[in-house]
Specification:
This protein is of the alpha+beta class and about 650 residues long. Helix content is about 15%, strand content about 35%. It has three domains: about 300 residues, Nuclear Transport Factor 2, Chain: A (Roll); about 130 residues, Roll (Nuclear Transport Factor 2, Chain: A); about 160 residues, Roll (Nuclear Transport Factor 2, Chain: A), CATH 3.10.450. The chain binds 2-acetamido-2-deoxy-beta-D-glucopyranose (9 copies).
């Protein structure tokens, strides 16, 4: 059969071949030109904000920065036309194609990657995108204009390595980087190997610029192999969900997608040129980066590497999982709480035990049920991971005279066997506000859900700000939160109410509160007239809760005035004795407002918003809220795991 041009790819579908040889048909029906045609059509559809012209399967999966979204949402509402840089990897045998390009979102430049999977009948069944919000990187790509020629050359057939070998060689890169051992054998790099990271060359450059978040100016002057021989990348503690979906055998290139965990335990960068240096504050806390990487082989060596990355919540699973994660639930311990059922006093005691275990980095001392689950910011982690390795101080009750401990409260709900904590955490130098929900069942801890909003400070070398996110409406840079308001410590004043149906934390209150946020109207919510509310420790212009919810008087258009859905609403605890409710939700900000948009609203975002709510005499009297930026459409694993 003759090679097909882009225009013909839809027409070809011999049903007999489809029935007999689906994988071969893919090869026959869509060659390089056809695959590149799909990419052009896709980018044109995206710029037109209209996916209806795409030949997709009924159940096409659309993924944006790791989040599965309805096709036509997210980037489809904000994307501008693609830039001129385009680096496409084509895999006719697998019906896979991926490209690295640039675009603008509400006028702001970003690096844009899209991978399409085609079915044998020519329809698109997977659309996976990565948007790296790095205007500087996008500008570098546009300056380059096109990929280095070597990426696009066809390698003579007799010099090509087969698909499996190409994948194995690319995988060596990840195996070498994970816990980067300075004594490793890195001879799989070509002597002339170079790497780009977000459009910037980071090997063999003598610019004297520091590398990444570090202050090191020597690392980037080394070649690929010499870099790995320093062990400098050892702060990458795990590389998981490794996928190699597009193997371009003709060009001896692979487009890979992986997830890099940095568990926060590596504290020193090794010696590069006679001096070791401390790990940058960005890596004080557990971080996960998702990366797309192109590899070009020369012979059986890695010759070119083109990497782009984004930050995602720590431990986030791939939307297209690769190899298994290993066990995430606890094998259980034999201990039990002192009482079963666990009453209020017992639950409050469990909070103390969990805080101590976190500080001791020892979950095994807790009475964990078999299969107990642990999550951080909506991701299930193994006990022992995340805060279990990085927590260095936690504000505790009983030390209220000490300022470091003045911001903390414990809560209990014996009716559901739930205990909770809200207080200041610290990992190395980085503070955070930690909310914990602890579920006790049959005298053992069955679930611990941690929601931790870390301070994001703009210090040297990028400080500790979540990589490539827009500014938040209210930032928390670690400034003192002062004391947690005393009303969160006090009990409810006994009213000697004989009606058992009257609750100090009325059911439906949290729903009403989040409904109000979604509608931008305080109507129907029992806010006390004097109710005050803080966000990330800040007060917006001394406005009452009602004024904040109604968006009155806050420039330019009210607090979170353009957010839409308030999803994944989770009541973490309702403490009857204290009249306190702790809840968390995901709030979408699709960035679809009228131009000119403020910097906070140009990029589709989701805000995770833990809220500590005090109820006095049936009305909300005080709210302490935190805000963390999340990729648009982010969903808590508790919501999807059932
Ligand atoms: C490193 O690996 C290569 C290829 O597997 C091998 O030929 C070489 O002997 C190894 N070098 C050392 C020092 O082990
Ligand atoms: C490494 O250190 C030596 C001496 O400490 C210095 O002469 C040399 O310039 C340094 N190399 C680089 C690449 O900075
Ligand atoms: C990097 O250098 C700056 C400026 O000298 C300094 O403030 C910062 O602490 C250094 N960071 C690390 C991780 O060494
Ligand atoms: C729990 O008890 C079983 C049997 O009594 C024992 O085999 C196991 O090692 C114990 N586990 C722990 C964590 O103590
Ligand atoms: C975190 O990384 C360190 C260093 O690589 C490793 O020793 C430790 O086992 C890791 N922790 C987890 C929970 O995997
Ligand atoms: C509630 O009851 C207690 C004891 O029964 C009594 O001392 C107290 O005065 C009552 N409080 C109110 C507000 O009625
Ligand atoms: C409490 O609520 C239940 C169910 O709504 C109702 O049947 C009952 O009459 C109520 N009791 C009082 C004292 O109001
Ligand atoms: C809020 O009100 C207090 C007391 O009325 C005042 O001291 C403070 O400056 C006000 N803050 C703002 C941001 O207006
Ligand atoms: C945002 O606030 C303005 C007033 O400042 C109001 O006119 C507009 O309706 C608000 N938009 C939403 C979505 O609440």
């Amino acid at each position: 059969m003759l090679p097909l041009t882009g225009a013909a790819y839809l027409a070809v579908c011999a049903w007999s071949a489809l029935a007999l040889l689906p994988s071969v048909l893919a090869a026959v029906s869509c060659d390089r030109a056809c695959l590149e045609g799909h990419i052009s059509d896709f980018l044109a559809a995206l710029a037109a904000h209209d996916p209806s012209t795409l030949p997709t399967t009924e159940d096409v999966t659309y993924v944006e920065n790791g989040q599965t979204l309805p096709l036509g949402t997210g980037e489809w509402l904000v994307a501008g036309p693609p830039g001129k840089y385009r680096h496409t990897f084509s895999d006719p045998d697998a019906g896979q194609v991926g490209t690295i390009t640039t675009l603008t979102e509400n006028g702001v430049a970003a690096i844009y990657i899209v991978r399409l999977k085609l079915e044998p009948d020519g329809r698109i069944s997977q659309i996976e995108t990565q948007i790296t919000r790095d205007p500087g990187g996008a500008a570098l790509y546009e300056k380059m204009g096109q990929p280095e020629a070597v990426w696009l050359e066809a390698v003579p057939r007799d010099q090509r390595l087969p698909r499996e070998t190409l994948i194995q060689l690319a995988n060596r890169y990840y195996t070498g980087m994970q816990r980067n051992d300075p004594r490793g054998n890195y001879s799989f790099f070509d002597q002339d190997c170079n790497r780009l990271e977000d459009g910037l060359q980071t090997t063999n450059v003598r610019s004297g610029d520091a590398y990444g978040h570090s202050n090191d100016t020597v690392f980037a002057s080394l070649g690929c192999e010499a870099q790995f021989q320093t062990g400098f990348l050892g702060f990458v503690t795990r590389i998981r969900d490794r996928r190699f979906p597009v193997v371009d055998e003709e060009r001896q290139a692979v487009l890979a997608m992986t997830i890099l965990d940095h568990n926060g335990t590596v504290r020193v960068l090794p010696d590069v040129n006679g001096t070791s240096s401390p790990i940058p504050p960005y890596f004080d806390v557990p971080r996960t980066l998702a990366a797309t990487e192109g590899f070009r082989l020369r012979g059986d060596k890695l010759f070119r590497i083109e990497m782009t990355l984004i930050e995602v919540p720590y431990g986030m699973r791939s939307a297209f999982p690769g190899r298994s994660q290993g066990a995430l639930s606890s094998p259980g311990t034999n201990g039990t709480t002192t009482k079963n059922p666990c009453d209020r006093e017992c639950l409050l005691d469990v909070v103390g035990q969990v805080l101590q275990a976190l500080l001791a980095h020892d979950h095994e001392r807790l009475p964990l049920a078999r299969g107990a689950k642990y999550s951080e910011n909506g991701q299930f982690l193994a006990f022992g991971d995340g805060l279990w390795e990085t927590a260095s101080s936690l504000a505790r009750l009983g030390d209220a005279d000490d300022d470091a401990h003045a911001y903390a409260a414990h809560f209990a709900d014996p009716a559901t066997g739930t205990a909770a904590y809200w207080g200041l955490s610290r990992e190395q130098t980085t503070p955070g506000v930690l909310a914990l929900r602890i579920k006790v069942h049959d005298g053992q801890i069955a679930e611990i859900e941690a929601v931790d909003v870390r301070a994001e400070s703009n210090g040297a070398r990028g400080g500790s700000v979540t990589l490539m996110r827009p500014p938040l409406p209210v930032e928390w840079d670690g400034r003192s939160l002062g004391r947690l308001h005393e009303s969160f410590q006090q009990g409810v004043v006994a009213t000697n109410n004989t009606n058992p149906n009257t609750s100090s934390t009325p059911p439906g209150l949290v729903e009403a509160y989040f409904d109000a946020w979604e509608r931008h109207s305080s109507r129907g919510v029992p806010f006390a007239p004097t109710c005050s509310r803080r966000d990330n420790g800040g007060v917006q212009g001394n406005l009452t809760c009602v004024e904040q919810m109604d968006g009155l008087g806050i420039a330019p258009n009210g607090l979170y005035n353009r957010t839409t859905t308030v999803r994944d609403r989770r009541l973490l605890i309702a403490d009857e004795a204290k009249g306190v409710v702790l809840a968390v939700a995901m709030i979408d900000n699709p960035a679809t407002g009228q131009a000119p948009l403020p910097a906070t609203e140009r990029i589709p975002s989701t805000y995770m918003v833990p809220q500590l709510i005090k109820v006095t005499d049936g009305s909300i009297s005080r709210v302490e809220g935190m805000v963390k930026w999340m990729p648009y459409g982010y969903t808590s694993a508790w919501e999807t795991s059932g």
